């Protein structure tokens, strides 16, 4: 058996069913072995599409996503996607070919120092030097990717190692003496946390992406205690977006209720989140009244990194929530809830209706038509925030977006990965005209595998979020954000791929357009021409605090402090 | 504040890269770094001198611990022995200077390890402060070259930096 075959055997033993990838010279022995393997391969048109699809596959399924690429340019095209998976703690294993061992370091054809380049953007990486190490390396890679704080692991395998005769064993043990994630929270700290919550007058529960797998425990704990729940962008769906205890998303484009709740909270229980600057705004002004911050995270390095923490709990959010639940009591929060209710009803997410078609109403129309029952993916920008605001998902693993890295172009490959992970689900990619064009070559992948994904492009003809910042902070100097003069006709572009194209330009055609997308048998690319001067509000400017919240566009402004 | 940190690592290729890369990426201030193998096959020990406030140092320790190949990290806040080795090549023009340098050498308990017509190489072992003073003392005579190893450290007493019995991870 050759190394390549051993690699696939090892992947099979890890339960891998799907690999996203693109072949090339240095990975050809493995692609040759793949020809006889039961593992399904999804051929993407660019390696970046492959790594994003693997990321979404992982996020939608809870399993490890796998991507494969050749050496040099192929592997380097994974860089953005690996960094994205790293920032959003997603378990991905990337397998890359490399030039034969004897050529490493000689600037050989398609050679790049891939383990060097990806060192800071992977949880760990390997350069396999010995064919008999393949089973152990694969086993370790999957273990590291999926356990503790999940993340991407890259395995770089020189071509001659793939071709070498394998004489080793698959019965291998992990050799990771320096890797022992703490899973169980410290009982004393859990007790302290419960005590602090019990004494609190204005407590809030904030959850992030690290609680997606703990949704059942989270729901039980929140309902038992009656705590108001706030979910970050990555936490959307970990708690039902239609639950009366839910206050929405915090941060830059979060709800007034969520941001005010944090601002006035005396005790904050934060679970599986890392206090990103988009959530906190200026850290020194974050949650100024909180005398106790309880931070539950599986990564000890996140605790105390940005926000002072009074009760640190290192552990798996699910196990910690289970323990918290055991001691949880119904809290007396009637007065607090009266305030929260007032903010929530007085400042719901809203937008000023205009004669022109608007992004928010398009997303809302899809939400109503589907009952919110879909997996949503997005690109990055205004449309992403609108989707987070106006498509409140109710189930975990159903809002797939690039949170930490803010990677434009993930929408389509995320939709592909999600559809392959959960083919029975309706998958909608809310995309921007800018974001979509960064990875649109993956329409070919949609066609090749007949993937029924609905791509909804909210075309405002601009890089809308940049334009919004220029509007607010750069005296309307719209530097290099205009796309409409050179955008393609998206519906016709889709048709060129053999995909149904839909175009909606007028407000009165909105429902017809939504129906055309949802009733279509198979994939659709739908272009909704939306109002270009729309801004995402509320907004806390970068480096600001809850008190600096802008509720409406400046010309019609109503600024509302905390 | 200056901190001396010892790190036990698996001596895999690039492990040093991972550590220096981490320091560069997170903006930690690295004053010196020394590395060598240990008596246990497969394990290397690294000594880092880092400056920063308590919060930074907490992050340094935690971020080092995140690295898969790092087995143990300790910040030497307890009584410990700290040494570095330094070679200084100093210019000596005539007999008078040679004698003066010899006085300094004796005062610091340094050794002469090379003698040439116009220069000497002196070897000194000591903590960083002693090495600094030694260099300052020689400076008036004309230092030609300095090579320092960076600090290495070890806790005093029976405390030992070691890995707990290798537990089999699941």
From TrEMBL, chain A:
It is an enzyme of class 2 (transferase). It comes from the Bacteria. Signal peptide: none annotated. Residues 1-114 form the Thiamine pyrophosphate enzyme N-terminal TPP-binding domain. InterPro entries: Acetolactate_synth_lsu (IPR012846), AHAS_TPP (IPR039368), DHS-like_NAD/FAD-binding_dom (IPR029035), THDP-binding (IPR029061), Thiamin_PyroP_enz_cen_dom (IPR012000), Thiamin_PyroP_enz_TPP-bd_dom (IPR012001), TPP-bd_CS (IPR000399), TPP_enz (IPR045229). Its EC number is 2.2.1.6. The keyword Cell membrane does not apply. Keywords: Amino-acid biosynthesis, Branched-chain amino acid biosynthesis, FAD, Flavoprotein, Magnesium, Metal-binding, Thiamine pyrophosphate, Transferase. This is Acetolactate synthase. It comes from Thermus parvatiensis.
TrEMBL record, chain B:
Residues 4-78 form the ACT domain. GO terms for biological process: isoleucine biosynthetic process; L-valine biosynthetic process. InterPro entries: Acetalactate_synth_ssu (IPR004789), Acetolactate_synth/TF_NikR_C (IPR027271), Acetolactate_synth_ssu_C (IPR019455), ACT-like_dom_sf (IPR045865), ACT_dom (IPR002912), AHAS_ACT (IPR039557), AHAS_small-like_ACT (IPR054480). The keyword Amino-acid biosynthesis applies. It catalyses: 2 pyruvate + H(+) = (2S)-2-acetolactate + CO2. GO terms for molecular function: acetolactate synthase activity; acetolactate synthase regulator activity. Pfam families: ACT_AHAS_ss (PF22629), ALS_ss_C (PF10369). Dimer of large and small chains. Catalyzes the conversion of 2 pyruvate molecules into acetolactate in the first common step of the biosynthetic pathway of the branched-amino acids such as leucine, isoleucine, and valine. This is Acetolactate synthase small subunit.
């Amino acid at each position: 058996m050759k190394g390549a075959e051993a690699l696939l055997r090892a992947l099979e033993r890890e339960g891998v069913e799907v690999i996203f990838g693109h072949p090339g010279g240095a990975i050809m022995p493995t692609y040759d072995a793949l020809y006889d393997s039961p593992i399904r391969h999804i051929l993407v048109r660019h390696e970046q599409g492959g790594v994003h699809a693997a990321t979404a596959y992982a996020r939608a399924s809870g399993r490890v996503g796998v991507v494969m690429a050749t050496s040099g340019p192929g592997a380097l095209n994974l860089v953005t996607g690996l960094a994205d998976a790293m920032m959003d703690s997603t378990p991905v294993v990337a397998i890359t070919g490399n030039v034969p061992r004897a050529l490493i370091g000689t600037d050989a054809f398609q050679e790049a120092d891939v383990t060097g380049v990806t060192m800071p953007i992977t949880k760990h990486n390997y350069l396999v030097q010995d064919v008999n190490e393949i089973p152990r390396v694969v086993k370790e890679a999957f273990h590291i990717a999926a356990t503790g704080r999940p993340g991407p692991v890259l395995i770089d395998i020189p071509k001659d190692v793939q071709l070498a005769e394998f004489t080793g064993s698959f019965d291998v043990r992990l050799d990771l003496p320096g890797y022992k994630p703490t899973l169980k929270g410290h009982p004393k700290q859990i007790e302290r946390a419960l005590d602090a919550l019990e004494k609190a007058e204005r407590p809030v529960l904030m959850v992030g992406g690290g609680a997606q797998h703990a949704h059942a425990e989270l729901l039980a704990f929140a309902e038992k205690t009656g705590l108001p729940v706030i979910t970050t962008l990555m936490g959307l769906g970990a708690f039902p977006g239609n639950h009366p205890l839910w206050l929405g998303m915090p941060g830059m484009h979060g709800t007034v209720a969520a941001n005010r709740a944090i601002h006035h909270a005396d005790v904050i229980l934060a679970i599986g989140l890392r206090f990103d600057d988009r959530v906190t705004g200026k850290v020194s002004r974050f949650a100024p009244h909180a005398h106790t911050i309880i931070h539950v995270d599986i990564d000890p390095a996140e605790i105390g990194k940005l926000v002072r923490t009074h009760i640190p709990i290192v552990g798996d959010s699910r196990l910690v929530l289970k323990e918290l639940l055991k001691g949880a009591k119904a809290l007396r929060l009637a007065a607090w809830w009266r305030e929260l209710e007032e903010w929530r009803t007085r400042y719901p997410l809203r937008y000023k209706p205009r004669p022109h078609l608007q992004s928010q109403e398009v997303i809302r129309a899809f939400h109503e038509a589907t009952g919110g029952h879909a997996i949503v993916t997005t690109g990055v920008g205004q449309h992403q925030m609108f989707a987070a605001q106006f498509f409140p998902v109710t189930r975990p693993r159903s809002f797939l977006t690039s949170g930490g890295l803010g990677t434009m172009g993930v929408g389509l490959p995320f939709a592909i990965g999600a559809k392959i992970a959960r083919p029975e689900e309706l998958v909608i990619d809310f995309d921007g005209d800018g974001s979509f064009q960064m990875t649109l070559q993956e329409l070919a992948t949609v066609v090749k595998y007949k993937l029924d994904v609905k791509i909804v492009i909210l075309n405002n003809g601009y890089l809308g979020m940049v334009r919004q910042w220029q509007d607010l902070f750069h005296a309307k100097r719209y530097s290099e954000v205009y796309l409409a003069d050179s955008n393609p006709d998206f519906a016709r572009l889709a048709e060129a791929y053999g995909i149904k194209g839909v175009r909606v330009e007028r407000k009165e055609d909105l429902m017809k357009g939504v129906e055309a997308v949802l009733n279509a048998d198979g994939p659709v690319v739908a272009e909704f021409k939306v109002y270009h001067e729309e801004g995402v509000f509320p907004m806390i400017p970068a480096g600001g605090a809850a008190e600096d919240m802008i509720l409406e566009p400046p010309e019609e402004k109503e600024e509302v402090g905390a | 504040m200056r901190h001396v940190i010892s790190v036990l690592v698996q001596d895999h290729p690039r492990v040093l890269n991972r550590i220096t890369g981490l320091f560069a990426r997170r903006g930690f201030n690295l004053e010196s770094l020394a590395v060598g193998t240990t008596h246990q096959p497969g394990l290397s020990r690294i000594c880092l001198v880092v400056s920063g406030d308590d919060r930074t140092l907490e992050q340094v320790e935690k971020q080092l611990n995140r690295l898969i190949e790092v087995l143990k990290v300790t910040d030497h806040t307890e009584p410990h022995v700290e040494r570095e080795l330094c070679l200084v090549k100093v210019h000596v023009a005539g007999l008078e200077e040679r004698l003066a340098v010899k006085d300094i050498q004796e005062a610091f308990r340094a050794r002469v390890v090379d003698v040439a017509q116009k220069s000497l190489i002196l070897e000194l072992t000591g903590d960083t402060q002693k090495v600094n003073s030694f260099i300052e003392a020689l400076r008036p005579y004309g230092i030609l070259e300095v090579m320092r190893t960076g600090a290495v450290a070890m806790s005093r007493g029976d405390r030992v930096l070691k890995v707990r019995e290798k537990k089999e991870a699941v």
